[in-house]
Amino acid sequence: MRTAERMATVLMVGLFSMIMVGCASTTDNSTNDGDKTWSAGGNCFFARSVRNFEALSDNLLIVWAPSQRCPYKVEVTSFCQGLKTTNAIAFNTQGSICGRANERLLIRDMGADRSCRIGKVSRLSAQELIDLRAEYGKSSPDEDPDNTTPDCTGTETSGE
Description:
disordered C terminus; alpha+beta; 6-stranded antiparallel sheet; single chain; 160 residues
C-alpha cells in the first residue's frame, strides 16, 4: 500500500507542477482564432486552457479560460482550506471541467497539497462577473459590462 501512496503523491506533485507552469497568471489577452478547442462549451471549460484565476473565498473561485474575456464560476462542495490565499491551482484532469463528481481542484497551501471536489461550474456574463466580484468586495469602478461580450468558443467580440 505504501508504494501506491508514493506513486499517487509523485503523480499529484508532477501534475501540479505541470499545471502551475501552464496556469501562471498572465496579462496576455491574445487569442489564436484558428484554435477552436479552448472552450468545452456551455458551463464547461478545458483545464488546460485556464489563463488566470481569482479565489473569492475558500469555496469559490473564478477562472478565465481561454482568455480574460471568458470567466467561469467554480464552486467546491465544501470548505477548501487555503484556496483564498493560494497563488497556484491545478485540476486532476487536462480535459473539460463541468462539475462532475470525479473532478478535483488541486492547490498547494503552505507546502501541503490539497484536493477539493468541484461541485458546480457556470459561465459568467460580464455583468454577473462584476456583480459576483462586488459581492466579495473585489469589483473596481472602471469595469464596464458593455465593453466586451464574452464569446468562449475560441473567438472574442468587442462591444466597442
